[in-house]
Amino acid sequence: MLGSVLYAQSQVDLYTQAMKAEEAGNVTESVSLFEQALAAGGEYSDEIREILAQYYEALGLAEDGSGSFSFRLQSDVGYYGLRYTEFGAKKDSAGNSDGDITENGGDIFASLNLYLDYTRGNWSHSLGITFVSDWFYDNKDMPALDTNDWNIAPGLEYSLVGRNILLDVGVDFNISSDKVFRPAGYAWIEYDIYKYETLRVGVAALGYYRKDGPATASLMGSLHRTAETGFNFSVYVGAKYEADYMLNILDYVEQVQQGGYQGGGSVIPDDNPWARCVADHGDSVCANQYNGVLQTYIEEYWAEQGDIWNSQNPWTNPQDTTAVLPTYWTRWVGPSVRANVSYLFKTNIALEVSLNMFYALVVDGASSEYEKMQKFSGSWGFKFSWKPWWFSLYAGIEQTFLDYNLPEELSNYFTERNLLTSIKAGVKVEF
Which of 23, 143, 306, 361 has its CA 20 to 30 A from that of 420? Predict the structure, then answer.
């Protein structure tokens, strides 16, 4: 998020950047950075105020500041090598683990963001137009992870940064190759309670919602250290609420076994969409409603049944081949920790470690069996970057994990552990 990046910069960082812009002869950028440094607050405020007064006088502006505009551009292009594993995904007839599912693929991604900044007094406003795209060029053998060939997400973003407060809001319009439109929106607010040199202590709240899920809300305490070089860190600790659609697989399997799901049983009772899907991919892949695998088998199955119905009843219309999977808006609550630690060398080389953890219980599930579920999810990552000028080169690794603690009734339909490993490399441009 744009605002959090601006907010994380201390007065010393902005002051240093303003001096460099001044040395380069960029008056507009230097004035904007000096104003942002003044808004950030700190021990150099009086000195910065005198510098701005000289600029205002030279430029014929009122000393109280009529405000200044500046433009920024950010772009990111890179590659993700993906390896996805579902541990214990294959089950035998008794529901015991019989093997893992491992898939490999790749993602080429690109982003382009344009920002208009306006600074006046202690306040900085930023309006951004964003565009993000992904091309999963090698996903034909990845049914458990992703079935879309590409995703694009244009969006709008606004942030407001003051002496002790940050507000950042935005909307994204996600479009994918499956021709589904998924709008999403988020809001982030953070307030500093205490500042001492490079340290900040405060509170933060985050909300996110996407039309087809998930929805999240967090309330956290925050601790930051920001400096031009050396160690920097950001830590958020608090409570998190998460809601997302989950396939009510117990209800679906029961209806299939009874032969009454969506218009009647099959011609051969043991032949049904669920059985076909499981035979080819395993329970866990078919129980994941987001990859669309089971839905494909449902559509193919009822198309066949429609043909049979037509051949046996030529004077009647074929039965409805539309099937809707039974889903439930499952709600989770639990503690959450987010941390980012980096070290920036004077050579503009940076090393960064990130961690994100969420332990949750189901507080509202499709049935009592679902409300026995627990999960531990999150990610960790390491990144190396070098910024010699207005661009930076980076490479790193990230692992996203999801561990379930499952009741016996659901153990045959969910994998206990999923792991996505991403090796990434790219170039980022900022000017």
Answer: 361
